[in-house]
Amino acid sequence: MNWKSQFPDTKAIIGMIHVPALPGTPQSKFSMNEILDIVLQEAKLYEDMLLDCIMIENMHDVPYLNKSVGPEVIAYMSVIGYRIKQEISIPCGMQILAAANNEALAASLAAGFNFIRVEGFVFGHVADEGYIDSCAGELLRYRRQIGAEHISIFTDIKKKHSAHAITSDVSIEETAKAAEFFLSDGVIITGNATGKEANISDVKNVRNVTTLPILIGSGITAENLDQYWDYADGFIIGSYFKEDGIWWKPVSNDRVNKVMRRVKYLSNNTHPSPVK
User: Fold this and answer.
1) Residue 185 in contact with residue 143, Cβ under 8 Å?
2) Does the reported pTM lie above 0.85?
3) Which of 29, 58, 192, 203 is most buried, by the most CB atoms less than 10 A from its CB?
4) Measuring CA to CA, which residue among 135, 149, 151, 137 is closest to residue 101?
5) Tens-of-pLDDT digits for all 276 residues of the chain?
């Protein structure tokens, strides 16, 4: 998916679907048919409410494995993705935690998805799952090998839920430039944890050093969207769209509507006003 061709005149709002715990994981409680019912309902809701994209992620599969998941997870995510693509027409993306990037690419190819979200693309960091090493060389060769070059790779830089002490002398700007040099299709900037907003200075600084699309990957709300609007190309929203702003609760129509009203206003006005 070429971002600028897909969204030449708009900022993309990407709704995150947190797939219920998959069968075989510690918190699993739903059958595959029940999981499909839940994710298809959310996907259709997001499309009906005029979001630009959706993403699916196996966030309920805690504790996460490190850079590898079983074949059953790849199979489940492939089937879930394929069913979603049969029901909605907007672009779709996938992440498989934690850092199971080859697996996400394979599942996305099978499902007909448009992009994946990747952690550990350049440099390395210590996450709660353990050490995550860089994967750009391996991942892009694998993408070529399986004929998936039409699937974009959007990469987290200085990722949330991670310690970056080992790269403390490497700025987020240098990390973004490294991602661009290693052929990332776009970079994702987050806060320190799920639901925490990104540092606006980081976003501005990255905007100054790369021509890649910039996505904000955590902490976006109807109230703070304004400050990022001029510097980012897309917004991945999960927690805020849920009841009470809690990621594991059902989607709140009111919260989605509030964001989409703000998006419409910002798209039509150069000088935003306070959120009402």
Assistant:
1) no
2) yes
3) 58
4) 135
5) 777 777 867 899 999 999 999 999 999 999 999 999 999 999 999 999 999 999 999 999 999 999 889 999 999 999 999 999 999 999 999 999 999 999 999 999 999 999 999 999 999 989 988 899 999 999 999 999 999 999 999 999 987 677 777 888 999 999 999 999 999 999 999 987 677 899 999 999 999 999 999 999 999 999 999 999 999 999 999 999 999 999 999 999 999 999 999 999 999 885 544 444
